[in-house]
Each structure stands twice: as C-alpha cells, then as structure tokens.
Write a structure and sequence with these properties.
Length: 168
Amino acid sequence: MYVVLLLFAVLGVFGVRTADSAEEPEWSCGTDAVSHWLSEATIEKSCPLLKGAINQCCMNHDQCYDDQRGRTFCDDAFCNCLVDAAKPSEECSEEDAPTFCLLVREFGEAAYEASGSNRTTETPLKMILLTTTALPRKVAVQKTAIPKRAIGAEEAPWIGAVFERMDE
C-alpha cells in the first residue's frame, strides 16, 4: 500500500516538473509587442489550458501569410482553427476566438502585405512579352476644370479663411 502511494507521489512530482520544465513555443498571436501581450494575457485568463492549441492556430496563420496563400484563405483557415481549438471552453469559444478572428479579418491586410514583401517573386515571361511588345497609343485626354471650392465660405464660415488664402 505504501509503495503504491509512494509511486504515485514520485510520478506526480516528476510529472509536474516535466510539465513545468517543458518549454512552450514563443507566443505567436499578434503583430507587435502590445498585441502579443494582450492576446496572450487574454488566453491565459480565459482558457489557459487551450493556450498551446490557440498559439498553434496563430503559427499556422503566420506561415500561411508567409507563403502568400491568399489572405482570405489564410484568415478562413485561422478562424476555423480557432473554432476547433476553443471548443472545450465556453468563454474562449464565445468571446476570444471570435474576437481574434474579427481582428485578423479587419486588420490583417498590412501583415499579409508585409509578409509578402519578404519574398522574391518572378514576373512571368508571358507578362514581360505582353508589356514590352505592345506600344502605347497616344490618346487625347479631355481635361475638366477642377472647381476651386466645393463648399462656399458662407456654408462653412470656419473654413473661409483657409480658402481665402488659397485664392491669393
């Protein structure tokens, strides 16, 4: 009996130490120090046991952006990954995953474009041939007069002084 208890105690201690000493991957959710910190703090508060799975969604999303697989494709895959990863936690699946998804869809364009700028791309030969063999035609462009003011000083007296200086 004592041997069994001692065995469980030893396994429990080593199990805790093994779990504590195992290094988790660097947090990948967010685009800068502030968003990294906020997203990690949010997940640690709401669903700490799902942190690894959610971080994996972010790592996959970053890789998808790096591979330039299409922003919509990457964002859809990310949102689906979050839905699956957050299922075990009601709070995480109802609040955090939808918020992360919304943020990526609304503000991910700059990150997607920045990921693409680190890659070298080749221009297809067909495109080069089309652009170098077709000579531009001279086409008369009809110029229209640009109105000086769209709004008169009478309608917006607070900007009247600005327009008067421009007229001089």
